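agent> fetching stored inputs for the thiamine diphosphate docking request
agent> found them:
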Amino acid sequence: MNGAQALIRTLVDAGATTCFTNPGTSEMHFVAALDSVPEMRAVLATFEGVATGAADGYARIADRPGVTLLHLGPGLGNGLANLHNARKAKSPIVNIVGDHATYHTQYDAQLQSDIETVARNVSSWVRTSASTAELAEDAAEAIGVSLGPPGQVATLILPADVSWSEGAAPAAPTPKAPAAPADEATIQTIANALRAGGRSAILLGGRALREGALTAAARIAAATDAQLLAETFPARLERGAGLPAPERIAYFPEFAAVQLRGLKNLILVDAKAPVTFFAYPGKPSYLVPDGCDVHELGSPESNVVASLEQLVEALDAGAKQPALQQAARPGRPSGQLTAEKVCQAIGALLPEGAIVSDESVTSGQTLPAATAGAPRHDLLALTGGAIGQGLPVAVGAAIAAPDRPVLALEADGSSLYTIQSLWTMVREQLNITVVLFNNRSYGILNVELQRVQADGAGPKAKSQLDLSRPDVDFVSLAKGFGVPSKRVGSAEDLLTELERAIAEPGPHLIEVLVPNVLSDRQLRAMPIALRAIGHLPRPLAQAVKRRLSP
Ligand SMILES: Cc1ncc(C[n+]2csc(CCOP(=O)(O)OP(=O)(O)O)c2C)c(N)n1
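agent> prediction call returned; pasting tokens
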């Protein structure tokens, strides 16, 4: 066996059976070895950001490592933004990055670069495999690290001669001790804090957003009156009718401040104490109110479900009925489309068991409310703020769950970072419906321009946030990649096309021309409105927040 064959066999034996590739000459022996290990599925992406984002989407749904095959430093660098998102999602990822043969590096040939430095930005484990004999052990270690908990990015750099030389043997996965729950003292302290009264909230993130953890947390909430919150951008949130429905912390700090106002206790479960996404002049970054005690029930390293279940026991809440989301769908919209009507249509039609990759940015503001009572589905959000994630994540999710319908809700600006994902969707015949919100702008940046109080923005500044001149024709782009596509202007046409796209196998793209969700006049009024919201009574403030928060 050569190194590459043993490496692939090791990956497959450890359950890592899908590799998202964009290879070059230094990876040719890995590519050649693919046929000798039939269990490994290889999925070609035509840009590395698609490969890394797809590995992330795959890992989020399969709960197994997503593997990438990338070409030296530049290939890894091209994939970095979505590896950053994967790191924030705590997704298990193993990157195999090809390198020059060990004896070739001394010549500083064209593609020679410091791969490890590029890798370190996103990887908690980086190794350049030193020999063919050690390669499989290195791979087994990489898999072990990637699985965590928490899931992590591990990068194995593979010199071409280590890959092509003979004398390798597969390695067995490294056995792992199971993750431990919180200790008894922590459980008791938190149980006492919750019993003592005062406003409490349980903030769920990471793996605490799946049904088991949600149900345990909802029992605790029912027993103690604590509020259930979820992090703003979940890696994977199981939601819909019949599941507990934690309220996501709002993106705008003014809204988040309303949600958190008056808290005496904040219990973190695989989540960080909330901070603002960006710093804003004169505004605090840390969102936990003064006087609120922050407790960590479950760290990302721990067994969060077991910790929550132990807290249920400590509170004698096992028999409590968790509050569950009622089934409810919005009515079918009609007339000229707006972003809100698109969300309404998605809420009206979202199929049971769907996976929603949400990168709709401002256009999807009302999506959480419109889909809250839809049949059960998984929501995959933009975890690390690096746009260009939505389409690749949809690719990976569809490969991980071929029997589930995938919806990619995609803003125009974000789509253009990794639009090549459409090609892989066709190549692999993935059941993905892309709803492309075309507002011909970087809409959110118009909001942010107001919020950061940058003075003096004139036409040159505004044109940096504008995606017209030329208008992008997404239907033609999609057709060029081989994706059946339609542009719709009315809600009736959208409903027809959505129903067709969801029912027909393979990928589809529906371009919806939508006005920006906030007009210039609203934008000018926004800073005042946001300041005012902090003074509104809670129910009213929350109603406004639900309407406006992306
Ligand atoms: C990799 C990366 N580059 C740039 C940005 C900055 N950025 C944040 S939002 C945004 C524009 C989003 O526009 P679009 O996707 O069209 O959504 P809209 O705001 O119009 O709803 C940009 C460029 C980013 N977040 N990530």
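agent> quick read of the result: The longest helix spans residues 132-147.
agent> awaiting further instructions
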